[in-house]
Amino acid sequence: MTTRRQFLKTSALGAGTIAFAPSFDSLLAATGSTEAPRRFIFIRKSNGVRPNEVALPSFNDK
After folding, report:
1. 18 vs 9: CA distance, rounded Å
2. DSSP 3-state assignment of 51?
């Protein structure tokens, strides 16, 4: 026979499982491939000097 304490423990555990079930879908979902996605990182750093202001006008392509 099930006691009241056992019933409350199992029903609370079941309610908690149902409440957190949607969050487990993303963890258990299988992805299409096992490779990590490729990413490209482009870093551009300037020292604050603009080439148009430093170069002589005679070096212009025009």
Report:
1. 14
2. helix
User: Cα separation of 53 and 59, whole Å?
Assistant: 12
CA 30, 36, 21 angle in degrees (round to 5)? 30
Compute the C-alpha angle 51/55/58, nearest 5°.
140
Please report the pLDDT score of residue 30 as a whole number: 61
Distance CA 14, CA 6 (A): 12
Percent of the chain with pLDDT over 90: 0
> What would the two tokens of residue 11 be?
């029903």
Write out the two tokens for 2. Answer: 């099930």
Tokens of 55: 């170069």
